[in-house]
Design goal:
The protein is built from 12 helices and 10 strands. By secondary structure, the protein is an alpha/beta fold. It has a 5-stranded mixed sheet with strand order 2-1-3-10-4, sandwiched between helices. A 5-stranded mixed sheet has the order 7-6-8-5-9.
């Protein structure tokens, strides 16, 4: 082999090595602090992770289970994670205290807060609560929303008997007819009632005059500047993960177990609960845009947050969120 031929081959090898190295360096690493241990709220992330959707978008994603939305937001605020998946109000309360945080995507565009009742009780619409007994847990995030919900639906507070009770007692109180309804999430009430063969009715606050987004992606403003393109791809890939999860919930539950092998949640319970998470991601149903809350809805939510949920009103709502990183071509609900 001549010197020229050897040099040509070596150059080709070096070029290939440089290409591989360039591709490897193009993969962005993002750490994502979740709000809690893995459940149906995390199906879209699990599917995107397990099926290589993040990898297709040149991302190396580290999903870290958490111990509460406020903690997740604080970890992002202090630079210990790139993104938090946290309840919108909890995150914005941290931001209102001076942390440079913004919500970059609302995944659960509708919170799961609402009123649940056993179907036979006959509470199908808000005014059916008149003259009924409603159990609410003291200290619950839902407690301050009850007056807002009643007012929005033309119901006087005196016309509904509010009973203070522990969340652990809700199911027993309902099945023994000591209360007519409870304020809770369907995953904690409708799913266990279903296991007992009992049908339930559910009224989301979101659909009845109290719009409040829940689990959202939150980032520091400096990380948005530094890693904006990577965050944008992450939002896109996560939305694609949610679409895939909705198209095949059984496989999505398996992917959750793959992405989070230590989760102790029962697969059947996860499958039953998945429809409620999907409803929170897609409150407007088929064709709804995943991960995006428009300015008008944000304005209405801000009114609820500042009047009933303790968020200070000293900043404009636009200081708390941005839609600039959401997909240019909307990813829609199937």
């Amino acid at each position: 082999m001549g010197l020229k031929s050897s040099w040509t081959k070596l150059s080709a090898i070096a070029l290939l090595a440089g290409f591989v190295s360039s591709n490897a360096s193009a993969t962005d690493v993002l750490s994502v602090q979740l709000n809690w241990t893995a459940d149906t709220a995390h199906l879209g992330f699990a599917v995107a992770q397990a099926r290589g959707i993040y990898e297709k978008h040149d991302l190396d994603i580290k999903l870290v289970e958490g111990r509460g939305s406020a903690v997740a937001a604080q970890l992002v605020a202090t630079g210990q994670a790139d993104l938090a998946y946290a309840d919108a109000v909890a995150a914005l309360k941290v931001a209102s205290q001076g942390a440079p945080l913004k919500i970059v995507s609302t995944i659960w565009k509708s919170g799961q807060f609402g009123i649940l009742s056993i179907k036979d009780v006959g509470i199908q619409k808000p005014k059916d609560l008149i003259g009924k007994r409603l159990a609410v847990s003291p200290g619950s995030a839902m407690l301050p929303l009850i007056p807002v919900f009643l007012k929005a639906n033309g119901i006087a507070e005196k016309d509904v008997e509010i009973i203070s009770a522990s969340e652990n007692a809700f199911l027993g109180l309902m099945t023994t007819k000591q209360v007519d309804a409870v304020s809770q999430t369907p995953e904690k009430i409708a799913v266990p009632l279903s296991k007992q063969g009992i049908e339930s009715n559910n009224m989301y606050f979101f659909d009845n005059g109290v719009p409040v987004a829940s689990l959202s992606l939150v980032a520091r403003e400096d990380r948005i500047s530094e890693k904006g393109e990577a965050i944008k791809r992450f939002i896109q890939a996560t939305a694609e993960g949610w679409v895939a999860a909705m198209q095949d919930p059984e496989s999505a539950v398996k992917d959750l177990k793959t992405a989070f092998p230590e989760t102790e949640n029962d697969p059947e319970a996860l499958l039953q609960a998945s429809k409620y998470s999907f409803a929170s991601v897609c409150p407007a149903g088929k064709g709804d845009t995943i991960g995006v809350t428009d300015d008008a809805t944000w304005s209405r939510m801000y009114t609820v947050m500042t009047t009933a949920m303790g968020l200070p009103a000293d900043k404009p709502v636009t200081s708390y969120y941005t839609n600039a990183l959401t997909p240019a071509a909307p990813v829609t609900c199937p």
